[in-house]
Amino acid sequence: MKNILIISTSLRPHSNSEILAKEFEKGALESGNNVEFINLTGKKINYCIGCLKCQKSQKCIIKDDTEEILEKIKNSDTIIFATPIYFYEMSGQMKTLLDRTNPLFTSDYSFKDIYLITTSADMSESASDGAINGIKGWIECFEKARFAGLISGVGLTDANEANNNAKLLKKAYEAGKNV
Fold first, then answer.
1. For the chain, how many structural domains are there in total?
2. What pLDDT digit, counting tens, does each position of 52-84 carry?
3. What CATH code is carried by the domain that includes residue 22?
4. Within the chain, how many helices (H) and strands (E) appear?
5. How far apart are CA 9 and CA 89, in angstroms?
6. How buried is 155 (Cβ within 10 angstroms: 0-12 exposed, 13-18 middle, 19+ buried)?
7. Cα–Cα distance measured from residue 119 to residue 24, given in angstroms and rounded to the nearest whole number
8. What Cα–Cα distance (Å) separates residue 109 from each residue in 6, 56, 70?
9. Which of 48, 70, 124, 154 is least surrounded, with the fewest CB atoms within 10 Å of its CB?
10. DSSP code string of 116-177
């Protein structure tokens, strides 16, 4: 049994990336894993100010919802980030959260496997390349972590559209089941 944390970074109601994240969650739960799902909607996540005080204390001086999320990230075995693709990159709220994980850099974190779920209106599989490079860059900073997989939905313009793509839903579910 693994401790799995799924972080949905879309703020759009009925977002396609969250729909796929929920399918991943179903599969992971059916495999007997301990799964927690966080949606960033309504969370207060301020920008990193680059003071680097967290490198010594392993705590951020900024008090907002990030503190609780960081504790969950730190203690998870597997993390799944789900993001819509905006201008060929991850959502701004996902990037802001990743920047705020700086206190974990010097900590004894548990996470090893990092998955990325992306959805884009663009039909090209390469639409997610910027987000993939971004998450891989983040992973490079954590020597115990590795990029474990990608689930990418393309050509999804309208909210809730992923629910009409059985093949994509199955791919997300199976990834969760095999995590």
1. 1
2. 999 899 999 999 999 999 999 999 999 999 999
3. 3.40.50.360
4. 6, 5
5. 13
6. middle
7. 14
8. 16, 15, 10
9. 124
10. EEEE-SSS-GGGGHHHHHHHHHHHHT-TT-EEEEEEEE-S--STTGGGG-HHHHHHHHHHHH
Tell me the pTM. 0.97
Q: Are 59 and 103 in contact (CB under 8 A)?
A: yes
| Residue span of the structural domain in which 143 resides | 3-177
Contacts for 167 with CB less than 8 Å, ≥ 6 apart: none
Provide the token pair at 1.
Answer: 């049994």
Evaluate the CA torsion angle 109, 22, 93, 81 in order and state its sign: positive
Contact 98, 130 (CB under 8 A): no
Spatial contact of 151 and 8, defined as CB atoms under 8 Å apart: no
Q: What is the pLDDT of residues 79-102, one digit of tens each?
A: 999 999 999 999 999 999 999 999
On whether the CB atoms of residues 145 and 112 are closer than 8 A, the answer is: yes
Q: Summarize pLDDT for 122-175 with one digit per residue, the tens.
A: 999 999 999 999 999 999 999 999 999 999 999 999 999 999 999 999 999 999
